[in-house]
Structures are given as structure tokens and as C-alpha cells.
Amino acid sequence: MSIEAPSPLLPRRRRSRKGSLRTVALLGPAFVAAIAYVDPGNVAANLTAGAKYGYLLVWVLVLANAMAVLVQYLSAKLGLVTGKSLPEMLGTRLRTGNRRAFWLQAEAMAIATDLAEVIGGAIALNLLFGVPLFVGGLITGVVSMGILSIQSRRGQRTFEFVVIGLLTIITVGFLTGLAFTDVSGPDALAGLVPRFEGTETVLLAASMLGATVMPHAIYLHSALARDRHGNDLEGPRLARLLRVTKWDVVGALIVAGAVNIGMLLLAASALRGIPGTDSIDGAHAAIQNSLGPTVAVIFAVGLLASGLASTSIGCAAGSEIMYGLLSMRIPLLLRRVVTLIPALVVLAAGVDPTFALVLSQVVLSLCIPFAVVPLVRMTSDRDLMGVHRNATATTVAAWVAAALIVVLNVSLLWLTFTG
Questions:
Q1: What pLDDT shows up at residue 378?
Q2: Half-sphere exposure (CA, 13 Å, Cβ side) for 411?
Q3: Is residue 54 part of a domain?
Q4: In this structure, what is the dihedral angle of CA atoms 97, 103, 107, 113, given to the nearest 10 degrees?
Q5: Residue 2: predicted pLDDT
């Protein structure tokens, strides 16, 4: 009887599986940053655009998501190569006066971010349980403190698992409705052609851009990558992490992009022309009438998960910005309390919550160049990045993206003030 020799492929297969598992274990920071791309501001902007103008602005989401992939990878690369976050790099390069002025605009951006996320959570609680908006804002703030405490007590990896779980709920919540609607393929494809129809569509495009290419996620991702993988990387390990980071960013933003485009397609196909669907509560009512109460509840649960997760990420980003630019580190929970106040004031004042969400995203859009321009300059710097500096094609693409953002913002301001 002959004994068959073990196949030489088995050890190789085992090594391959182990290598794949190690690669998967390195993923995560981009999925945390991706929460910023599916926050309540996205919901308001995308639903309003789809309900009012159908498939007209699909191209904005596709373009914005492509930009987001590029800038998020550059942000993570900066953190991995330099061992410092983007705010820290800015803090070491700017003079005192410029550094403080930069922090003020970044702090305004952080407040606008928090405004959108707390209001979104409050709306979701109102839709699900009839909780008054002000009380819902308080509950959202308190629960987000609990999520932030996980990062403080259990570490970043556990925090990542919690956030990715919430991202899963968000994805299911916002995409379920598509299974019950008839999306027009030809009209959706026609929406890929760049065009506007009046001043309001420019406002909405800027809002959608601000909600997709989120400036606070650009600041934060560099810190997430650094904290997850260390700040003293070099040689083959650094090269491997940069490769894995590309997959991390692409995978995370494919999910976020699908959610955003799915929301617009849902509004365009099921909510177009229905009165009141340019607000989240109106859209929720229309979804309930058109697609049934189950889909409406799932949508509201996705909105709640979006508000809870994104407000935690926004608070963490604001803390990193303050530390990098002012060398001040205040406890995350204290910052959570302070930044909650403007959102609660807006809710108590009775401002239309959906309109406040859309305007907050316009503020974010205006702040994007302040994050993107220095990021592109730094990651293209040979002295700073060495062999990992941007390739020429990457630099050109990044500058084109920055220029498009600036042009859209200037157009928005011009059309707004000239009528």
C-alpha cells in the first residue's frame, strides 16, 4: 500500500488564508470615517434632491464619492507616513495667528456637523416613538456619550466594531425601500450628465457635496490610521499598510456611496411630486403610505443609527482638530456636552429641522477646501512624504477635485446673493 505524499499546495493555501485574515484584521479605520458620509445631513440633502428634482443630481453623488475615495486615502496615507494627523501637521506649520483662525473655521465646521447629526437623531426618535425633538436631541447626545466611552475604555478596535455594526444598520435601513420601488434605469443614467436647473439645484449640489466629502472625516481619518497602526512605520510594513488602506477606503466608500445614491433613487422614484417630501418627516410619511409601515420603520431605524454613530465620529474629529491646532486635549465627554448646546438651541427655537440640516451641509461644503488644499500639498511634498509622495496623476486628480469644490462653492455664493 502506498502512502500519498501531502500536497505542496496545502501549506501555501494555509499561508494564503492566514495572509487574507491578517489583511482583513487591518481594515477598519476607513469604515469608521465612512460613517460621516451617511449621516443625517446626507439623508436630508439626498431626499430633498430626489423628491424635488428626480434623478437630475445623481452625477453630483457619483462625482463626490469619487472625490471622497481620493481624499480619504490621502488623509490616511498622511497619518501612516508621517505618524501625525492632518491637524497636527497644520499646527506645526502655521503661525500662531493663522493657526487660531484656521481652528475657528474648523470649529465652525465641527459645530455644523454636530448640528446635523443631533437633529437627525432627534427626528428619528420623533418618527419612531413620538419623542419631542428637543428631548430627542438630548437622548441622542447622551447615547453618543456612551458610544464615545467605548473608545475611551475599550480601545479603538472595539469602537470600530460598534461603529461598523451601526453602519450595517444604516445600510439596511436606507436601502430596503429600493426593493419595493421601480427605479427608472434610463432616467438614472441620464442623471449622470452634469447639469443644473436653477439656483436651488446649485444649493442642493453644494449641500450634497458637503455631506459626502466631509471635511471633519478628512481631518479624522489621518488620526484613525495613525492610532490604529502606530506612528513609527517604515519599510515593507508601511508599504503593506498603504496597500491595505486603499482597499479599506474603496470598500468603505463603495458602501457609503451606494447608500447615498440609493436614497436619492428612492426619493426620485417613490417620492417625486408628493407634497412635503422635501423634509425627512414628510418623506417618512410618504414612504409609509407608498411602501408600507415596515419599510418606514426600517428607514427610521437607519436614520437613528446614522445620527448616533455620526455624532460620535464628529465629536472625535472635533477633539483631534482642537488638539492638533491648539495643543489642547479636553475629555471627549466634556466636548460632547459643549457641542450639543447649539443643536439643542436650534431644536428649542423651532427651526425647520430639515432646512437646518441642508444649510449645515452647505457650511461643510464651504469648509472642504481648507482641509483638501493643505492635504494635497502635504502628500505631494517629497521632503515630507519621501518615496510615498503622490504620483503625478494622483496630484493632478486631487487638484482638479479641489478646484471643482471651490468653483461649486463660489457659484453657490454668487447665485445666493444675486438671486
A1: 96
A2: 17
A3: yes
A4: 140
A5: 46
Range 330-350 average pLDDT: 85
pLDDT digits (tens, 9 = 90+) for 293-326: 999 999 999 999 998 988 888 888 988 999 999 9
Tally of structural domains, the chain: 1
Residue 372 lies in a domain: yes
Whether pTM exceeds 0.85: yes
- Cell numbers at residue 23, please? 489583511
Banded pLDDT at 339 (limits 50, 70, 90): confident
Are 221 and 75 contacting, i.e. CB atoms less than 8 angstroms apart? yes
Whole-angstrom distance, CA of residue 29 vs CA of residue 19: 19
What's the domain range around 43? Answer: 27-418
Q: What is the dihedral of CA 395, 313, 311, 150, to 10 degrees?
A: 170
Position 112 in a domain: yes
Taking the C-alpha atoms of residue 90 and residue 277, their distance in angstroms, rounded to an integer, is 42
Number of residues that this document lists for the chain: 419
Q: Is the pLDDT of residue 46 over 60?
A: yes
For CA atoms 149, 155, 161, 164, the dihedral sign is: positive
Alpha carbons 14 and 6: distance in angstroms, whole number: 13
Q: Which helix (H) or strand (E) holds 400?
A: helix 392-418
Read off the amino acid at residue 111: I
Give backbone dihedrals phi and psi of 6, rounded to 5 degrees, phi first. -65, 140
> What is the C-alpha separation between 156 and 154, in angstroms, rounded?
7
Q: Which CATH number characterizes residue 267's domain? A: 1.20.1740.10
In the three-class reduction of DSSP (H, G, I as helix; E, B as strand; rest coil), residue 193 is classed as coil
> Quick check: 157 pLDDT over 70?
yes
Is the residue at 13 inside a domain?
Answer: no
Inter-residue contact 412 to 209 (CB < 8 Å):
no
Does the pLDDT of residue 53 top 80, yes or no? yes
Task: Using DSSP, state whether 181 is helix, strand or coil.
Answer: coil
Q: pLDDT value at position 207?
A: 76
Average pLDDT, the chain: 86
Residue carrying C-alpha cell 409609509: 288
CB 124 within 8 A of CB 307: yes
